[in-house]
Design brief:
alpha+beta; four-stranded antiparallel beta sheet; three-stranded antiparallel beta sheet; 10 strands
């Protein structure tokens, strides 16, 4: 099923089989996009929401000079733009980071689901609240952590989110991001990110290489990141 990773058992809230079947039936199309492709532009009228099936995608904002700030990274099982359902447009762009497969759910179908299945409506709301919690954690990371802490925090967060989606074993996972991406996520320069990646490796915390992350010491990495997974509301942090 295309929705298997959405609100899995490892999340604090899960879908019942009938709810998952109803959501599955609401999917109108499956689309595959290449890496580095913008699929929704800010201000466009939206009549669908997207559930990420496979790959990594981002939400981002460009400044007037064209420099990008990543404001969210999405993993398989994420509904990337449920907030576009009531708003009907986004204030940011949505793009792939890696090759990605997406399930398209028309807003008309979402409206019918919400009317017919109030418990499912609350669970969709839960998913948007998790997005908001992640945004708050990103603000904390950028505002209070040093460069090494920022990268370490992001790695810890991605590991926890990918574990919940059955895409990480808790020790290693694919992360098809460049150092430029990490810089735009963590508010650093690429030179600084390169230095931080080396520090994390030399301190025996984690290794980031060739599109993969290997966590060498999760306890120490978590401490260095000041990472508390509570905000992700996973059933098994």
């Amino acid at each position: 099923m295309y929705t298997d990773r959405f609100l899995k058992d490892k999340r604090g809230v899960r879908l019942e089989p009938a709810e998952r079947a109803a959501l599955e039936a609401a999917i109108s199309d499956i689309k595959t996009f290449p890496p580095r492709k913008t699929v929704v532009f800010a201000g466009e009228t939206m009549n669908f929401s997207m559930l990420l099936i496979d790959g990594l995608m981002s939400r981002y904002i460009d400044d007037r000079r064209g420099f990008r700030q990543l404001v969210a990274v999405h993993v398989p099982g994420d509904f990337m733009d449920l907030h576009g359902f009531p708003l009907k447009q986004l204030d940011h762009d949505v793009a792939t980071l890696t090759a990605s497969t997406v399930a398209m759910v028309p807003h008309r179908a979402l409206e019918q689901l919400i009317e017919a299945e109030p418990p499912l409506a609350r669970k969709l709301w839960f998913a948007t609240l998790i997005d908001a919690a992640i945004h708050r954690a990103w603000l904390f990371r950028l505002g209070r952590l040093d460069a090494t802490g920022r990268v370490a925090h992001f790695i810890c967060e991605m590991n926890a989110r990918l574990v919940a989606a059955d895409c990480s074993d808790g020790q290693s996972f694919a992360l098809g991001l460049t150092q430029v991406d990490l810089a735009e996520i963590c508010g650093l320069t690429t030179v600084h990110v390169n230095r931080v990646v080396r520090i994390l490796r030399e301190e025996g915390l984690c290794r980031i290489q060739a599109g993969r992350v290997e966590i060498l010491d999760l306890k120490r990495l978590t401490a260095r990141a000041q990472f508390d997974p509570y905000y992700l509301y996973n059933a098994h942090p």
